[in-house]
């Protein structure tokens, strides 16, 4: 494993704690696990520490998924208590979403760092543009489709979200709103989807990176425990605040805010590929 000087570890720790506060707020506000913040922050922070490019993105994604576990659980609790979660839709995803996660974990064992960044940027760009320029007329229907289409969509949500290191909010919010569901319900349900993604995704990324000699200190597979120890307590405390803000804001404000955030993240990753 790659060793870090003590001073650089402290610098990384401070940045990770700050990222944890922001990601926890976003987890509750947008129904995401915070991965859209954590992945680019981790990727950039590990560069000056001398961590090899070949594993930087993988560690960022794997660690993000692990952090999403308690964050999504806490956010889901807060939204469920308000009665905003579509429990029937969530139950229909119980098999399909984790199946996509398993396939993504297998892909992660072989895909390059650039490949992961490209996937992240492409999906974030598409969803961000759709949210910023959204119109009520942009719908695929008024009723969410049943099986087998719903299972296929759940599989793709699990697949692409795991490759991005996010909790499913990006994909599920888009899916539900395209079929006429209120953004607040989509946000709330997405926090539950995050649980279905993060738990098996964490196990999958540990397996995918097991024994890699390029991993930074404190890692098991592609999950870095130093980052988890610093960020998880902060995100769990802040997520309920985001949930309260979510229910206080108008739908269009949520869409524009989430969309602009995704566009900024996409631009940053595209720049890293040039």
UniProtKB/TrEMBL annotation:
Report the locations given in the UniProt record.
Cell membrane; Membrane
Q: Which domain of life is it from?
A: Bacteria
Question: Which regions span the lipid bilayer?
Answer: 12-43, 55-73, 93-111, 116-133, 153-175, 187-210, 222-242, 254-271
- Using the UniProt record, give the first listed, main subcellular location: membrane
Q: Does the keyword Nucleotidyltransferase apply?
A: no
Keyword list, A-Z? Cell membrane, Membrane, Transmembrane, Transmembrane helix
The signal peptide stretch is: none
Per the record, what is one GO cellular component? plasma membrane
| Entry keyword DNA-binding | no
Where along the sequence do coiled-coil regions lie?
none
Membrane topology of this protein: Multi-pass membrane protein
Spell out the Pfam families in the cross-references: TauE
Q: Which family does it belong to?
A: Belongs to the 4-toluene sulfonate uptake permease (TSUP) (TC 2.A.102) family.
**Which protein are we looking at?**
Probable membrane transporter protein
What is the originating organism of this protein? Nitratireductor mangrovi
